[in-house]
Design a protein that fits this description.
Belongs to the glycosyl hydrolase 35 family. This protein is α+β, with helices and mostly antiparallel strands and 580 residues long. It contains twelve helices and 29 strands.
């Protein structure tokens, strides 16, 4: 059985996958191009080849590429990645969504769309499907021209993503499949769902290959799949070999490598193909990590996902092989025609720790006033969606009329972090406030829910501001998007002075590097915020853990002076920021 990529016609038959009529088994691994620095794509793909894989799978995050309606940002990145996949001698599975989950902000859906549609996303609703159609019109050419029969690596494309875990609108799935075919996708389509009857009933389509996702008990999962799809290849589209972490929670219990390798062997002994999720997780750069809601019905507290997407994968966040890599390589070698290529050398690393000098500071108010959006006055507190803020902060200001005695102040429905000041004095939320008084509230988004029935919920002061049971009206609000920091000249022009007492704001400075390489950035004594190195956003840091340092890809650094910006949204004791 061939496992070597080649150009030709890829088909799904009653007995399995075939390329130009020859049987093939897909040994795939998930790697998200948007979670790996582009200069390191080639190395990570070589690592997948060296593990014994012949295919790579990636999602496509809509919100990354269309931050505003009709404004597209580097959609061509997908095409460049697929070209790198082809150069590495791998096939590609593309999962374009429009919903992707992936522990990514809003499951990949743009907030400008979900903020207006609420529960109508992922349905046949025209107000949802028309933007999807326009988006796919821009995206699909990157896929279509790189299909295997055109000499490219793309052998299959997914319809939606784990839809059976969310809905049962078969007309919606049929419409998506039609949009893909209409857009020029001619390779086989597939769906993926949990191995449960209700999920496969809701998420699969007649005539489209169904696959299942699981972390254990493959024989049982495939028996369930066969009840819905009696013939055709068996495939685990997501073999969960690890898991992700939430801020404020412990690290996920690491999966024992021997156990994971045994399950992988069992999958392959069933005659199935596999996609290892994740083969290499990477990093949710740019503050794009999503969140979950706790509880059986996902109605509980927000659980924001950390910046690292290491996932306990066989290739770790920094691109190094783990014990899981070694064991998977041994298993995969038994199901391939040839031995895997040698493991490539690791990328260079920083040779010695260096300390950043942060000697300029701009208060958070001034950062907002310079880089934020337009200030507006609203009847009640607007949401992030009302202010067109995807990732970032919103400042609310409102007066409490008086005279009136101290009454409890509440923020119903708020799920993010709030800092409150009353007449300029920091005050805990829930404190009784007398009037007259001036309130200022800073709300920091902790990421939008990416999975479950709460997908698409709004952010910010979603239930208004209540003084006792009375709404406070005439709220002034202004939003600061993280992508405002993409304008390096605007950031450089910010007024600055020496830092004072660890107050929140933008701290700027530099670090001198003699020999660039991969590094970790440590911020001991800093509370919470975001970091940029040479204008590249590493993501969110938070002292509550479990993540204690941010990955800095070597290509972000340069010999000599490197700019460092730290947007602290709480407080810092001013301890040094270090690259190690």
């Amino acid at each position: 059985m061939s496992t070597r990529p080649a150009d030709g016609v890829f088909t799904v038959t009653d007995s399995g996958f075939a390329l130009d009529g020859r049987p093939v088994r897909l040994l795939s691994g998930a790697l998200h191009y948007f979670r790996v620095h582009e200069a390191q794509w080639a190395h990570r793909l070589e690592m997948l080849r060296a593990m014994g894989l012949n295919c790579v799978e990636t999602y496509v995050p809509w919100n990354l590429h269309e931050p505003f309606p009709g404004q597209y940002r580097d959609v061509e990145a997908l095409g460049r990645f697929l070209d790198a996949v082809h150069a590495a001698g791998l096939w590609a599975l593309v999962r374009p969504g429009p919903y992707i989950c992936a522990e990514w902000e809003n499951g990949g859906l743009p907030q400008w769309l979900t903020g207006t549609l609420a529960g109508q996303v992922r349905t046949r609703n025209r107000a949802y499907l028309e933007p999807v159609r326009r988006w796919f019109g821009h995206l699909l050419p990157q896929v279509v021209e790189r299909q295997v029969h055109h000499g490219g690596p793309v052998i299959m494309v997914q319809v939606e993503n784990e839809y059976g875990s969310y809905g049962s609108d078969q007309e919606y799935l049929r419409e998506l499949a039609h949009i893909l075919r209409e857009g020029g996708v001619t390779v086989p389509l597939f769906t993926s769902d949990g191995p449960e009857d209700h999920m496969l009933t809701g998420g699969s389509l007649p005539g489209v290959l169904a696959t299942v996702n699981f972390g254990s008990h493959p024989a049982e999962a495939f028996r369930t799949l066969r009840r819905h799809q009696p013939a055709g290849p068996l495939m685990c589209m997501e073999f969960w070999c690890g898991w992700f972490a939430h801020w404020g929670a412990g690290e996920p219990e690491p999966r024992e490598a021997r156990d994971a390798a045994a399950v992988l062997r069992e999958i392959l002994e069933c005659g199935a193909s596999v996609n290892i999720y994740m083969a290499h997780g990477g990093t949710s750069f740019g503050g794009w990590a999503g969140a979950n809601r706790a509880g059986d019905l996902h109605d509980g507290a927000l659980q924001p996902t950390v910046t690292s997407y290491d996932y306990g994968a066989p290739v770790d966040e920094r691109g190094r092989p783990t014990e899981l890599f070694r064991r998977f390589r041994e298993v995969l070698a038994d199901f391939a025609d040839a031995a895997p290529p040698p493991v490539p050398a690791a990328p260079p690393v920083l040779t010695a720790p260096v300390t950043a000098v942060l000697d300029a500071w701009t208060p958070l108010d001034e950062v907002m006033d310079t880089l934020g959006g337009t200030e507006g006055v609203f009847g009640t507190a607007p949401t992030f969606e009302d202010l067109d803020v995807d990732r970032g902060l919103v400042r609310y200001r409102v007066g409490v009329p008086g005279p009136r005695p101290p009454l409890p102040l509440s923020l119903p429905g708020v799920r993010d972090l709030v800092r409150l000041s009353v007449d300029g004095i920091d005050t805990p939320v829930g404190t009784a406030v007398a009037g007259p008084a001036e309130l200022e509230l800073w709300v920091e988004s902790l990421g939008r829910v990416n999975y479950g029935p709460r997908l698409g919920e709004t952010k910010g002061l979603t239930g208004g501001i209540l003084h006792e049971r009375q709404y406070l009206h005439g709220v002034s609000a202004r939003g600061l998007r993280l992508d405002a920091f993409d304008d390096v000249k605007a950031v450089a022009a910010l007024p600055s002075r020496l830092p004072e007492h660890g107050e929140p704001g933008l701290y700027r400075g530099s670090v001198d590097v003699s020999s660039p390489g991969d590094a970790m950035l440590e911020l001991p004594g800093w509370s919470r915020g975001f970091v940029w190195v040479n204008g590249f956003c590493l993501g969110r840091y938070w002292s509550r853990g479990p993540q204690s340092a941010l990955f800095v890809p070597g290509p972000v650094l340069r010999p000599g002076v490197n700019e460092v910006w730290v947007l602290e949204t709480d407080r810092t004791d001013g301890k040094p920021v270090r690259l190690v």
